[in-house]
Amino acid sequence: MSAQPVLRVSGLDVYYGPRHRRRHALRDASLTLGSGEVVGVIGETGSGKSTLARAIVGLVRPTAGRVVIDGEDVTGYRNRQWRSLRRRGVVQYVFQDPLRSLDPDLTIEDSLVEPLLVQGIFRAEAVTRARAYLSRVRLDEELLRRLPGELSGGQRQRVSLARALVAEPKLVILDEPVSALDSANRVGVLEILKELRAGGVSLMFISHDLGSVAGLADRIAVLYQGALVETGPAEEVIARPAHAYTRLLVNSAPTLRSASAGRAEREALRALLGT
Prior knowledge:
One of its GO terms (molecular function) is ATP binding. By secondary structure, this protein is an alpha/beta fold. The protein folds into two domains: 1-90 and 170-236, Rossmann fold (3-Layer(aba) Sandwich); 103-168, no CATH class. It has helices spanning 49-56, 79-87, 108-118, 123-136, 153-165, 183-198, 210-214, 234-239, 244-252, 263-273; strands spanning 7-16, 23-33, 38-42, 64-69, 72-73, 91-94, 171-175, 202-207, 219-224, 227-233. The protein is globular.
């Protein structure tokens, strides 16, 4: 891991709504992500996961705090500066719904080469790279001629991942990348992410499902009601969770729950959290 983190988030606050009834969606969040590291950000719906991700890439403006990507302080960036950063391919965002990031009127080939053409790469080279990354996410070149609507949900999610990777970014943020997939496609995408991890790509994997990130993340950050309540090495967080909410998540994950972690214990944790 390099001395300089690929991502540094410090004291990030985000509010939603008008001043007289604002909702504190993110509270004093601080997080780092090193080169080639995978951080899993875990929490239930409404905990602030997507707000954190969108604040990092400039889709939500924070009220306080700083965001530094690859040594570049992007906290106060305007739309033009964000467009420049994205066109350079430094950071890429993979949405939960791939149809939000794939133009329905463009073929898969055009969707994949578009970010490379913006960077000034000749089309022939861009197409070659597009084919390589389509293969990397285990899809056939035959799909290059199709439109997104002609693909299955699992295929579209893999294309969305290939489109994020084709620009060879320093950081990829994945917002619930497997939650809408069936079990077979979920396993396939997780296997691809493991290969990317081995290849040195920095990933922030956002999920409500601790089991999905347990075997992938180097570190896990737990969000509860807009606050990061626990951060640490994945094995330690899973084996010895310090916060009551983290213990609830661990005991609720079918693949992580021990035989002794029964219903009574989970109900006791829910009562402690007031949920």
